[in-house]
Design a protein that fits this description.
Rossmann fold, 8 strands, 43% helix, single chain, four-stranded parallel beta sheet, 259 residues, alpha/beta, 13 helices, 16% strand
Length: 259
């Protein structure tokens, strides 16, 4: 404010000249396409994204029961769902935030549909983020744990092996609904990770964004002495790096602390 102006002039100058800054999302705007009953990812992203990075959400359409068939139906609504997220401002990154959904629809098709809806954004998927995270950790031989039924677990194994990883063992909890997956206790997830680990595994993968694995991933990793990758940790890392945000975040495992 020019001190040479009279009080009346200062007041008028304030009224005539709106001041702007970068807003709360000046460092990045990340959009997440969720499935209808998802209740973990939204909270995890808002909680752990660093200051200056905004998270925005929309939900695609699918039946309640989670199966290969129902998840594949998501492909028809990804573009429309992505288009509803900040349509007048635009996103830096948009992610299809479902691991098994990515596998059912296909990673390439998922990204193509996201691009249709948010043409200016970089695209990624939850399964793709996991793939990139495992590679960043130098993992080759992995054990997989998930809340999925056998069919979906087998689909994820096929995806991972197609990406060049060796899945030594795969375990599923046999849960059909997101409303059950979100209630799996974090202390049980830690016990579960210990139970599925093998000495010859380079890393443990805890798949599915509905699980609250990010709450315990750092503790599990320290106990097992090897990288532990979980879906929401991997997606958080991948979306930040795609947005050009290189912050290292403590307490969320080696991936976000080192890569």
């Amino acid at each position: 404010m020019d001190k040479h102006l009279s009080p009346t002039e200062q007041r008028q100058s304030i009224l005539d000249n709106v001041r702007f800054d970068g807003g709360r999302n000046a460092r990045g705007k990340i959009g997440f396409v969720l499935i209808p009953n998802e209740q973990t990812i939204e909270d995890d992203m808002i909680r752990y994204l660093p200051t200056g990075v905004g998270a925005y959400f929309s939900r695609a359409v699918m039946p309640r029961e989670i199966s290969t068939e129902s998840l594949a139906q998501l492909g028809t609504s990804l573009a429309e769902t992505a288009a509803r997220i900040l349509p007048d401002d635009g996103l830096d990154v948009v992610a299809f935030a479902c691991t098994s959904g990515t596998v059912a629809v296909g990673e390439e098709k998922s990204c193509a549909e996201l691009t249709k809806g948010a043409p200016g954004a970089k695209t990624t998927t939850l399964a793709g983020a996991v793939r990139k995270a495992l590679s960043a950790m130098g993992a080759q031989n992995i054990v997989l744990g998930s809340p999925y039924v056998a069919e979906l677990n087998a689909n994820v194994v096929t995806y991972l092996e197609g990406a060049g990883f060796t899945v030594l063992e795969a375990h599923g909890m046999g849960l059909d609904y997101d409303t059950d997956m979100i209630r799996v206790a974090p202390d049980y997830i830690a016990d579960y990770a210990r139970a599925i680990d093998r000495p010859d595994a380079d890393a443990v993968l805890l798949s599915c964004g509905a699980l609250r694995s990010i709450d315990v991933v750092d503790a599990i990793e320290q106990e097992l002495g090897k990288p532990v990758i979980c879906s929401n940790q991997a997606m958080l890392w991948d979306c930040l790096r795609l947005a050009g945000v290189d912050d290292k975040l403590p307490g969320l495992g080696r991936l976000l602390r080192e890569c």
